[in-house]
Design goal:
239 residues; mainly alpha
């Protein structure tokens, strides 16, 4: 028995039912991920205008502690990134900018988490369904070839069996397309939501950096104290 016959026997023995169960399991996973991502993005979306106004007011008055406390109450990506910058503000604008870039990368990873599953399912679910259809067509032609040997009215009985098997086989393709459409739609929606959240986060970082670069007091208190100490030592040596 050659390889083709072996594979045909395997497909005939397994049938196309397991493909439908696989698609069902994948669809359950996609629904669960879509619900989880929807709840997650709801927690990462805050009122951008309100946050910028509050942050700008505290930074204008020079109250960094109040600004950090206000951001700590929020769960949005922008608040997390701005908080990382404020915590490093005493080391200068450059250190704060690097800290915000690192926090932005972490937030981006969280926003894009599990979206690859939706994209992969949307692209491949029709092919999985088509695979089930091909198995069903193999079964149909196998029934067509076996009908005359069985001596049961080859013409009409074989035609009915083939049409019935092909109709069942096409169900797998339909199910695959049915699962792929919402998966692709959900993936596109969450990708746009991710870009929107990251754009709002970048706006907050620009507000914070503008205050750091325009206000000399953000240059870093520890460096100023060290430089003053070194200057006092130099003056003592000169005396």
């Amino acid at each position: 028995m050659d390889t083709v016959e072996t594979l045909k026997d395997i497909f005939i023995a397994s049938g196309a039912g397991w493909v439908l169960w696989l698609l069902l399991a994948l669809s359950v996973g996609s629904v669960a991920i879509a619900i989880e991502r929807f709840v997650f993005f709801r927690t990462k979306s805050d009122d951008l205008r309100g946050i910028v106004g509050t942050l700008d007011a505290h930074l204008r008055s020079g109250d960094r502690a109040a600004a950090l406390a206000e951001l700590g109450k929020l769960r949005s990506a922008g608040a997390a990134v701005a908080s990382a910058g404020l915590r490093l503000s005493s080391r200068g604008a450059r250190a704060a900018e690097k800290g915000m870039e690192s926090a932005m990368a972490i937030e981006r990873k969280g926003l894009e988490s599990r979206l690859a599953y939706l994209g992969t399912l949307g692209n491949n679910a029709p092919f999985i369904g088509l695979f089930g259809t091909v198995i069903g067509v193999i079964l149909a032609f196998e029934a067509l070839g076996a009908a005359p040997a069985a001596g049961t009215g080859p013409s009409q009985v074989a035609s009915t069996a083939v049409m019935s098997a092909i109709a069942e086989a096409l169900v797998a393709t339909a199910v695959g397309i049915f699962i792929a459409i919402p998966a692709v739609a959900a993936n596109n929606y969450f990708m746009r939501a991710s870009k929107r959240v990251l754009a709002n986060t970048e706006a907050l970082t620009r507000v914070l950096l503008s205050h750091m670069k325009s206000d000399p007091s953000w240059a870093g208190v520890p460096r100023t104290s060290e430089s003053s100490g070194s200057r006092s030592k130099k003056s003592k040596k000169e005396d």
